Amino acid sequence: xxxxxxxxxxxxxxxxxxxxxxxxxxxxxxLSLAEIASKLGVSRTMPYRLLYxxxxxxxxxQNEQTKRYELTPKVLELGFSYLSTVKLPExxxxxxxxxxxxxxxxxxxxxxxxxxxxxxxxxxxxSARGIAAINVNIGLRLPAHATANGKLLLAYQKKEKLxxxxxxxxxxxxxxxxxxxxxxxxxxxxxxxxxxxxxSKGELYKGIQSIAAPIFDRSGEIxxxxxxxxxxxxxxxxxxxxxxxxxxxxxxxKLTSFMGYC
Length: 262
Fold this sequence. Notes:
This protein is α+β, with helices and mostly antiparallel strands. The chain folds into two domains: 3-72, Orthogonal Bundle (Arc Repressor Mutant, subunit A), CATH 1.10.10; 86-258, 2-Layer Sandwich (Beta-Lactamase), CATH 3.30.450.40. Helices cover 42% and strands 19% of the residues. The strands form two sheets. It has a six-stranded antiparallel sheet with strand order 6-5-4-9-8-7. Strands 1-3-2 form a three-stranded antiparallel sheet. Helix 2 packs across helix 4 (45-56) and helix 7 (148-155) packs across helix 9 (182-195). The radius of gyration is 20 Å and the shape is globular. Pfam families: HTH_IclR, IclR_C. May be an activator protein for the gylABX operon. This is Glycerol operon regulatory protein. It comes from Niallia endozanthoxylica. Keywords: DNA-binding, Transcription, Transcription regulation.
């Protein structure tokens, strides 16, 4: 179907409504009507009716005192509806737990994630134990270019897809180790693709490192990434090469077989 013909079927109100929901994040948990209108680049009149509809459907709540909007737990139903159609999180959980337990001496957490645009989204997790544990919540989004699992997922994308993802956009520097040049990132992605795994050290947070391995679907396309996370002081190169990486690659291979790819 041609682009012009597709545009005829676009439901602008639905598109704008979903766009409003994506405006809320960890840094901006509440937004006013004026802020929402500004972010959308429209007058206040247009989003008012959409906000009323989203509120009546239960996806948004407006504070009566501040008049600011916030997401409600009902939004989770959208994500859980997707997760319920994907068997991998359920299948992978015992394997994530096993990796976490077998590498307990390193204090690792183990995660399963997928790529969504410029972000990785976590769809399963085995939390590390201890007060200083490094854990994530299901549904958390992190910038792909600054994480081992994100770089791994990017490494198996076609160049056209990468250009589309990062078209006219900058790579945010989260630490001094974060890749901020797309050319440099692409060189790193080539190495990751050749090696079949990815490592990040202090690119997202100082003192934190991660190792990731790929999971492929039945067509041989990358579907998800499994990774472990711990502190820089816990892992050394010898432990990574002889203990952590072999365990991670073996588990990724088993999960790939569940996806129907051998």
